[in-house]
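Handout, page 2. Input:
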Amino acid sequence: MPVSSASKFEWFFREVASLDVDKDDLKRYSGFINGKLHDLLVVGQATATANRRDIMEPFDLPITKGLQQSIDEFKRLDTEIDLKTVLEGLTTWPPLDVSLSEETEARLPLIAGGLSVALARTFKILKPDLPNPQTAHWEQAFRVFHLLL
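Output:
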């Protein structure tokens, strides 16, 4: 990740949850985001297929009310730093049996941003006074997401 992109993520985590993250954290973060996007796309693919469509639309993705609120919060924050552009280059998704509509594909960086807001806030829910997440904190937050998404 380029230095300017890393500094945007550092700013983002400080702004959203008063957390200091480093490059090792950003590697964990990237793996988490891509894994959760993969999970959402797999479920979206199943929904599209069940509805006999070969194109996945945004409404096929299992976006909960809480995740939608985090996406909306990300949109407000992103006007300050343009993190969506960085997420577009960072996020990857697996080959699927269905195609993504243009609208679905365009929405993925926003979903990644919403997941980012939710992740940052999860650290503070689990440990309110946490200044700098360590490996155990990341693993604990990931377990919460794996349970729910």
